[in-house]
Each structure stands twice: as C-alpha cells, then as structure tokens.
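User: Structure please.
Assistant: Input sequence and predicted structure:
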Amino acid sequence: MKKFTLLIPDMMCGHCEKRIREAVASLGGNVTSLDLETKIVVAEADVSEEELINAIDDAGYDAQIKS
C-alpha cells in the first residue's frame, strides 16, 4: 500500500472524520492517523493520489497532498 499525508482544511469534527474514513475505506484503504487540530490525515491505499483526493472531494472535503 502507498502512504499518503493529506491536508484537509475543512475537517473540523467527528462527523468529518467519519466521512473521510469512509471515503478512504471505499477505495480499499485505511486511515492510520487523523488529527482534527492540525487537519492532517495519513492514509494508506493502493490508488493514485488523484483517486484518493477525488474520493475525499466526493465526500465533500477539499484535500491536498502535504509534502
């Protein structure tokens, strides 16, 4: 699995966390770390950056790869 570190500025609460986890899981991946304070998510999945960002976007959240 590929490891991704994402910045999701609109993520603010437990509901946001649940939706993002579901979006990653829908791709067969999982969230290994999620921090609502820093807005950083670490996820693992066998997909491209674009596929992961699109899935999170479809869940209603802007996401960008954090370098």
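The radius of gyration is 10 Å.
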